[in-house]
Amino acid sequence: EAAGFCYVNDIVLAILELLKYHARVVYVDIDIHHGDGVEEAFYLTDRVMTVSFHKGGDFFPGTGKVEDKGLYDGKYFSLNFPLHDGVDDESYHEIFKPTMEKVIEYFQPSAIVLQCGADSLSGDRLGCFNLSMKGHGDCVKYLMTFDLPMLILGGGGYTIRNVARCWAYETGVCLGAELSNDIPYNEYYEYYAPEYKLHIDPCDMDNYNTPNYLQSVKAKLLEYLHCLPQAPSVQFHDVPRSPEVEYKESDPDQRETLADRDAMVDHEAELYDDAKDQDADASGGQSGSTDSPHRSGSADKTSSNAVLNGSTVASVARTVDAMDTSAVAGADVKPPTVADSQSSQLNHQPSLDESAPPSSSSSSVASSLSTPSSAPSQTHAMDTSKLDES
């Protein structure tokens, strides 16, 4: 569920994608608001540890107490550090660096997701912290020292020119580039008046975070970390291939290799029923429903094969008859004729002879003698008619 003025919880979606490749992911939130949406999504799991440094009390969204530490498998995997108004760079880093050092030590993540909300900067319209641009960026620098894969995201921020300053500076931090404090002239140059500088000075405001309060909250969070038995392990599992990530544009001037074809991911819509489909059964038909057009096409093929087989059998029979006739031509035994074979057949069917008219029989025999090639089919027709009359 999205929260914090967001309609899509893109951070949770990103972490879910990272969990396909990383056993453990730590989420760090330095926005002034509590990261309630991300915490709630992973409140019951031990594969994601959420750490939020935010303003506590009745400040929106009103969640993120020290006692909120996760449940069931996720117990002690949600850490919250609520702060009071006016926290400055020195106080912030006294609790941020020791806490994150122990988190990395105990949880042993293989990836870090850092949300760099700029509303914790001094002078924000809704925020009430007093961090400088450099103090905010030092959080990014410190997490980079662990040499782990990092996904760095934006977040809140309601003084737009300071948001642009912050993320430009922290982009330079990520790239190891030293940016000039003088903002170069551009179409938005007047937005940064009257200083026209990259860095802003902290405000003159009281810091209500006493050293005793900061140390007590930090000690409580470290106690939670000591309760972790060990870094949770994950069994080996298949990682689904992502066509958006793994696909690379092919060179039209080069032949596609077998490895490239194997790496391609078929879309689910590419599966279809067709006569050439691999799911065809042994008879040439499909394994789907009987009213499929491919089934009827297969049935037509089967019928044509049956007709072809019938004509082939008739041709073989005529060839055998011719061979028998030539074999007995020189002998005293008179070879049987078609009329003799039909007479013999009629003698074995007395009930049919009694009911059949003699003219029908004689005409059939005469027709058989005149056209010997069609004798088998005509004889079959004569027998069928006698069966119908009986």
From TrEMBL:
Top EC class, one word: hydrolase
EC number(s) given by UniProt: 3.5.1.98
InterPro entries according to UniProt: HDAC_I/II, HDACs, His_deacetylse_dom, His_deacetylse_dom_sf, Ureohydrolase_dom_sf
Biological process terms in GO annotation: epigenetic regulation of gene expression
GO cellular component: nucleus
Organism classification: Eukaryota, Metazoa, Ecdysozoa, Arthropoda, Crustacea
Chain spans, region Disordered: 238-259, 275-306, 327-390
Any one Gene Ontology molecular-function term assigned to this protein's record: histone deacetylase activity, hydrolytic mechanism
Species this chain originates from: Hirondellea gigas
Name the UniProt record assigns to this protein: histone deacetylase
